[in-house]
Design a protein that fits this description.
The structure is a single chain. Helices cover 74% and strands 0% of the residues. It is built from 16 helices and no strands. Helix 1 (2-29) packs across helix 14, helix 1 packs across helix 16 and helix 11 packs antiparallel against helix 12. The radius of gyration is 21 Å and the shape is globular. It starts with a helix and ends in a 9-residue tail after the last helix. Keywords: Membrane, Transmembrane, Transmembrane helix. It comes from Massilia solisilvae.
Length: 379
Amino acid sequence: MNKHFVTMLGWWRWLAAFAVVLYHVRFLLLAPYDDVAEKGVLLNLFYFGTSLGHEGFVLYMLVSGMLLGGLSLRRWKLQGAGAWRDIAHKALWFYAFLVPGLLLGGLLDLTGHCELRSTGTYAYFDQFTPDFSLRAVAENLLPVQRFIVPGLGSNSMLYLLAYECWAYLAFAAFVLPTRRRTGAVLGAFVAIVGSVLAPEFVGYLLLWMMGAGVYHYRLRLQERLGRGRAFVLFVASLLTSRVVGSHLSEVPEQYVLVVRSLLDLQFGIGLTCLLLALGSSRIYRDRRSVLLWRLARGFPAANSVIFACHFPLMMFAVAAASRAFGVPIAGQPQPLLFALFGLVVALIYAYAWALSQLARRLVRLLGAARGMPVAPVTA
């Protein structure tokens, strides 16, 4: 049961990454929906399907809590398990893809900003930071994006990995100490400091912790859920997130973060119900589906690369295409832009695959030298 459930979670995290990539590429290449001159049924479906980026963030953090938190807790409870060795192994994987991704991304951003600035691509993205100093690179090697520093260049998505990292550390601080009071104090300290430095961290932390708790108690929860009821709850939570989220500009500024966090939590609950209900689906239980399992096992490196490192390549590719074909940034829908849309998405996945393979080689080299396990971990 555990193996099949983890396989399913891996595929849902792939879906989260895919939703985020589609949203970001469409954001750069095609005009916002309200600015589109002619709308049809197919175009409406396309825009809806590529507008689920934020929901992809919610799904990513929820499933991360299930895999990083729930699976880790299960391992740590085994007799003779080395929790700190497990944490060190995850840190090794983290830096094995972060360092190459950060350096290659910085090179792409620097080249694009210098050579392709006239296309307006880098000016269009208001979170782009043109500081490529050694200090900026060193700061971004630590998981402090949005807490203390912005992302390097266009790599603004690094904040999501920073939130994931600190949620994991808060969870470890809470469950590892032998004294519960000590663990509660350490976990609360990480949560409070993180929330003061980046208020939106609270919502993501709650989603991550929800995922860890749900994985731990999943067998009890699954007994109370029917697939029909779970699907209805999921659809209702998704529509609520999309409809209310599209009107956040009408909410007073001081309440926007609270409303957004509540929307994310209710969508997280809907997702949880759906994931639990689908946990016993035959497609994930079929032992002949070796490909499903292998792809899910290979997920941590590739998916993290997609989330953390796709922006520099995407920005560079869109800027280069804009100059080569003379298309404007965020232009009106046309066949050429849809073709470029598909090409850029394919390039991002090829880039993520290449970086994930490089990360695997680095882990083998460094892990073997330190006597650590070298096989990719599921979480």
